[in-house]
């Protein structure tokens, strides 16, 4: 059942302060769970005794949904661990996973962890060179890969990377080389079953503990080469306990489900998924995020973590569609949304709307709002997002339509949640109160958010200098983000410390604030705000060509190429209008004075964005320096 967005929200409790007061009891409770779980695979094996043949995992890499029970999951884990032992893999050896989301991702992960290996996730979108860097740096011995595209990038690494000994391919239709170092997943499991090492594995399990290193998760590399954050079972278990049992308190019951949409390589999806299993829930896997609405309609999950871009695109698509609708449909849409907003704003203010407004809201729901909810399936309770901010106006839009979408905050190095909005503690625009047992302080000089807690890593893999730089002298982790707390203990992120723009007039500008205002427009795909050391702020804009090109055709604009399209006076005037409208709330010094439309889209392959879709500002500045200089030619 969906979160009730029609009921007035009670007065907010300061959970940041509450968790501090209850610290001793929380520490005792967390230790109880650590002692019970020990490690993630041990937890799963023990829970199998309870849940047996109940469904646990669901995926559809071959076109139809396939389900794995808890018993099947445990059996495959032991088969995978046996096969790794048979291949000569030892405890604490590194095992990589280079695949999109699918059940085998977790099964390989849990099987490797069962024999105390250290797993190293690699983004499915990484290039061969990016994958090679991680394989070499982590000294990966066995690499699990997903489909043909991943295998084709991985196979050359057997010769390039000295540590790599074996590749295991998940997808059974993959064309592999006749090479004894390569094996399909099904055959790999069969080898483990034929020569089971269960007794030896159980002895290894007896040696395992929550302080064991379990994962090396590489940062996305926005500011340089990726660094391997060394996680233990304890750092990752903190989120399963603290988020699952406090932030999400009362949301779920055994048998509920969550959709894995974010890449499992992403620390949020990784720790969240284990938290879901720790509550006896089910996981559905979305292999292709472009098909997410179809997956949601088929699976009807209770919850999901998503990238903000999903909600931005749905929002933009809805408003694009209504622009082309008949005048009557536009009128109905606007009326319904106005009623929903009036009703929703009262609810958010803690005021229960009266019967007349409630009746209007019911009619608006029947006419329009229910169609928005239907996009997400019929079984959802609420959705979370992470990895980047989402404009609070978009958060409110979905709330008005009956869909609760809330954000949190954290980093790869913090497992990741430091703060998170929950169904009983949320404020749009904030990232929520701090999680239990997490301490956050704001540096009085720089405004930087600094953190401590059982979820924070102690080191980067083989990078002692980077480790020293990541912590203050008194042991607080430097997040690199700037933020503030409000009177209720809710944290707000204002920008990245390294991203701040200081104009030639000495004004500090937060580019993310400007970019977030612009990026919600469905005609803007990416934007990078520039202006450090300059008199005014400018921007590089990648248009959303899937929206711009149809608009241009409708306007009668002819063009032979994108380069010709973005130079058309009518197109430039169109974007001037968009920018002017969206920056009305900004101060004069924050407003974009000049902009340049870019012909080519940003991509991971060309280096402008990370696997998590964040813009690499340094790369963009260097690559487009001539265009940036042209926007400031009048300063010379």
What structural keywords apply?
636 residues, alpha/beta, eight-stranded mixed β-sheet, five-stranded parallel β-sheet, 24 helices, globular
Can you walk through the features of this model?
- The protein contains 24 helices and 24 strands.
- The strands form 6 sheets. Strands 2-1-11-10-12-13-14-15 form an 8-stranded mixed beta sheet, sandwiched between helices. It has a 5-stranded parallel beta sheet with strand order 4-3-5-6-7, with helices on both faces.
- Helix 3 runs antiparallel to helix 4 (70-86) and helix 4 (70-86) packs across helix 9.
- The termini are far apart.
- The mean pLDDT is 95.
| Total DSSP E strands | 24
- Categorize the overall geometry: globular
Please outline the major beta sheet.
Answer: 8 strands, mixed
Instruction: Calculate the mean pLDDT score and round it.
Output: 95
Distance between the termini: 62 Å
Low-confidence stretches: none
Sheet with the most strands: spatial strand order: 2-1-11-10-12-13-14-15
Radius of gyration over all CA atoms, rounded: 25 Å
Q: Which band does the percent of strand residues land in?
A: 15-25%
* Global structural class: alpha/beta
Helix content: 40-55%
């Amino acid at each position: 059942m969906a979160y009730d967005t029609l009921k007035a929200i009670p007065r907010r409790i300061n959970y940041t302060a509450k968790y501090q007061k209850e610290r001793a009891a929380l520490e005792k409770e967390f230790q109880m769970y650590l002692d019970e779980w020990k490690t993630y695979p041990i937890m799963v094996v023990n829970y199998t005794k309870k849940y047996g043949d109940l469904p646990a995992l669901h995926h559809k890499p071959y076109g139809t949904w396939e389900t794995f029970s808890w018993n099947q999951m445990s059996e495959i884990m032991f088969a995978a661990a046996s096969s790794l032992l048979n291949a000569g893999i030892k405890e604490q050896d590194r095992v990589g996973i280079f695949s999109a989301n699918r059940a085998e991702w977790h099964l390989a992960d849990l099987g490797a962890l069962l024999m105390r290996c250290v797993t190293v996730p690699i983004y499915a979108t990484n290039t061969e060179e990016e994958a090679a860097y991680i394989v070499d740096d982590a000294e990966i011995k066995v690499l699990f890969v997903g489909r043909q595209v991943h295998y084709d990038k991985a196979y050359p690494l057997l010769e390039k990377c000295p540590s790599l000994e074996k590749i295991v391919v998940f997808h059974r239709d993959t064309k592999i080389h006749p090479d004894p170092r390569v094996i399909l997943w099904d055959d790999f499991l069969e080898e483990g079953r034929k020569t089971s090492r269960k007794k030896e594995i159980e002895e290894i399990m007896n040696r395992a503990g929550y302080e064991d290193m379990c994962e090396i998760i590489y940062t996305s590399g926005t500011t340089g080469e990726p660094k391997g954050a060394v996680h233990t079972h304890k750092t990752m278990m903190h989120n399963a306990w603290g988020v699952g049992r406090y932030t999400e308190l009362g949301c779920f019951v055994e048998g509920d489900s969550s959709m894995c949409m974010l890449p499992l390589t992403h620390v949020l999806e990784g720790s969240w998924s284990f938290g879901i299993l720790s509550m006896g829930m089910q996981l559905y896997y979305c292999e292709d995020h472009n098909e997410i609405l179809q997956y949601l309609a088929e699976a009807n999950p209770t919850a999901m973590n998503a990238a903000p871009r999903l909600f931005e695109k749905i929002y933009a698509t809805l408003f694009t569609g209504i622009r082309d609708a008949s005048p009557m449909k536009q009128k109905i849409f606007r009326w319904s949304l106005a009623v929903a907003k009036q009703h929703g704003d009262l609810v958010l203010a803690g005021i229960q709307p009266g019967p007349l407004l409630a009746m209007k809201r019911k009619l608006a729901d029947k006419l329009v709002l229910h169609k928005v909810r239907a996009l997400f399936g019929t079984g959802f309770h609420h959705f979370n997002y992470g990895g980047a901010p989402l404009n609070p106006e978009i958060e409110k839009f979905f709330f008005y339509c009956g869909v609760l979408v809330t954000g949190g905050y954290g980093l790869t190095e913090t497992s990741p949640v430091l703060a998170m909005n929950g169904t009983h503690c949320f404020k749009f625009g904030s990232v929520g109160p701090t999680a239990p047992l997490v301490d956050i302080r704001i540096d009085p000089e720089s405004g930087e958010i600094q953190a401590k807690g059982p979820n924070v890593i102690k080191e980067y893999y083989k990078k002692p200098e980077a480790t020293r730089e990541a912590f203050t002298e008194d042991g607080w982790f430097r997040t690199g983000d700037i933020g503030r707390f409000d009177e209720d203990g809710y944290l707000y992120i204002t920008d990245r410390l390294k991203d701040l723009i200081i104009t030639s007039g000495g004004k500090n500008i937060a580019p993310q604030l400007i970019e977030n205002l612009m990026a919600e427009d469905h005609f803007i795909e990416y934007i990078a705000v520039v202006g450090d050391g300059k008199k005014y702020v400018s921007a590089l804009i990648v248009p959303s060509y899937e929206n711009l090109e149809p608009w241009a055709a409708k306007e009668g604009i002819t063009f032979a190429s994108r380069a010709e399209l973005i130079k058309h006076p009518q197109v430039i005037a169109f974007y001037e209008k968009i920018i002017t409208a969206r920056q009305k709330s900004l101060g004069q010094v924050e407003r974009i004075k000049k902009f340049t439309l870019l012909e080519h889209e940003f991509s991971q392959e060309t280096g402008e964005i990370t696997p998590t879709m964040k813009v690499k500002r340094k790369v963009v500045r260097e690559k487009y320096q001539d265009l940036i200089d042209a926007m400031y030619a009048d300063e010379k």
